[in-house]
Amino acid sequence: MFPVARAALNLTARGVQRTAVRQTHHRMHEPNFHDKYGNLVLIGGAAVFATVWGYVFTKSGMEWGLSPVGRVTPKEWRE
């Protein structure tokens, strides 16, 4: 193996080891707001989003999936 490649692999392995050590130390912290309520806030936001847009779409009078082909006729020309 070439010395440069060996050094690169060694640096990569060291980086992975450092990351693993950092993550194990990071897990020992006390849960903060995002750890406790993050998923709940995300689900609540999605529910509000769906509710508001559902209301907007139902009140706007849009007809879904209906093609105007064959139903739309031109009005008589007025001069």
Please tell me about this protein's structure.
The chain has helices spanning 3-26, 33-59. It has 79 residues and is an all-alpha fold. The chain is elongated, with a radius of gyration of 30 Å.
Largest sheet: none
The radius of gyration over CA amounts to 30 Å
Low-pLDDT runs of 5+ residues are none
- Structural category is mainly alpha
Through-space gap between termini = 90 Å
**Overall morphology:** elongated
* Integer average pLDDT: 77
Strand content: under 5%
Helix content range of the residues, please? 55-70%
How many helical elements?
Answer: 2
Taken in chain order, the helices and strands follow as: HH
User: Total number of β-strand segments?
Assistant: 0
List the helices and strands and how they pair.
Elements (H helix, E strand, L loop, with lengths): L2 H24 L6 H27 L20
Please give a quick description of this structure.
The protein is an all-alpha fold. It is built from two helices and no strands.
What key attributes describe this structure?
79 residues; mainly alpha; 2 helices; 65% helix; 0% strand
